[in-house]
Amino acid sequence: MAYGALCCFIKERRRIKMREFGLIGYPLGHAYSQKYFEDKFKNLGITDAKYNLFPISEISKIHNIITSQPNLIGLNVTTPYKELVIPYLNELDETILRLGTVNTIKITRNGEKFSLKGYNTDVFGLQKTFAELNFPEGSKALIFGSGGSGKTVSFVLKEMGIGSTNVSREPENLKQISYSNITEAVLKRHNILINATPVGMFPNIDSCPQIPYKYVTDKHFCIDLVYNPAQTLFLKKCADKGALTVNGLTMLYEQADKAWEIWNSTL
């Protein structure tokens, strides 16, 4: 390339305003979102966007990130901040008012001022995941975890007309049970088992929810929201009993694409 043409190219590149997106949570060593979006940008020929990871040890640091990254216009939110981030937002999508968890934030800027609106695209991702499984009529679910992800799973299942019970290490109400309460009879009544905790996520791949796997059968649908590794110990133990198993990749892809749609919307 001639010197003059090279200078023009450099000037043109400088005029392109980068759009920045990212993920907040802690820790983020397991996160696949950055690779997913980088591949998406490459495949679509998008050259004015980049996606970064922002591992923050306290949710109060979210404003520091936004003020220090003036081109940042969208954030994904992961563990443990899906509920804790809500007080820092200016506006909530109506779904959040019913659900109480956030995984996507759209940042609108006006000079040095900014406004944050929260959404939950995990709902969309879960709907897509569950729709592919064709649960039989009368299905009931056990959800391992009572945090933000567990509440989102329960919300989506309820919208589908499927009853569920959350399993927690420390049950907070009569609608939750402890892991020690999971018996053969409980597993027989619940044909859907969903891990909505980080247990088994890389690098702790030798961990799994503590349930009596000997009572899992080929009648069970076993879903792990963890996607790294692709087959968690939970899924392996269930598959060994003949259960249908699904990881969290479909949910990841679908919720990410929905977030991208929101960030690029002018509404």
Helix-strand layout with pairing:
Layout: H1 3-15, E1 19-25, H2 33-44, E2 49-55, H3 62-68, E3 72-77, E4 91-92, H4 94-99, E5 104-110, E6 113-119, H5 122-131, E7 140-144, H6 148-159, E8 163-167, E9 176-177, H7 184-189, E10 192-195, E11 221-224, H8 233-239, E12 244-246, H9 249-263
Parallel strand pairs: 1-2, 1-3, 4-6, 7-8, 7-10, 8-9, 10-11, 11-12
Antiparallel strand pairs: 3-5, 5-6
Helix pairs in contact: 5-6, 5-9
Determine the oligomeric state from the structure. single chain
CATH superfamily heading of the largest domain: NAD(P)-binding Rossmann-like Domain
Radius of gyration, whole Å: 21 Å
Q: Tally the helices: what do you get?
A: 9
Helix content: 25-40%
Task: Report the CATH C-level class of the largest domain.
Answer: Alpha Beta
How would you summarize this macromolecular structure in one to three sentences?
The chain has 267 residues and is of the alpha/beta class.
How does this structure look, described?
The chain has two domains: 12-120, Leucine Dehydrogenase, chain A, domain 1 (Rossmann fold, 3-Layer(aba) Sandwich); 123-251, NAD(P)-binding Rossmann-like Domain (Rossmann fold, 3-Layer(aba) Sandwich), CATH 3.40.50.720. Helix content is 33%, strand content 22%. Helix 5 (122-131) packs across helix 6 (148-159) and helix 5 packs across helix 9. The longest helix has 15 residues, at 249-263. The chain has a six-stranded mixed sheet, with helices on both faces. It has a six-stranded parallel sheet with strand order 9-8-7-10-11-12, sandwiched between helices. It starts with a helix and ends with a helix. The protein is built from nine helices and twelve strands. Strand 5 (104-110) and strand 6 (113-119) form a beta hairpin.
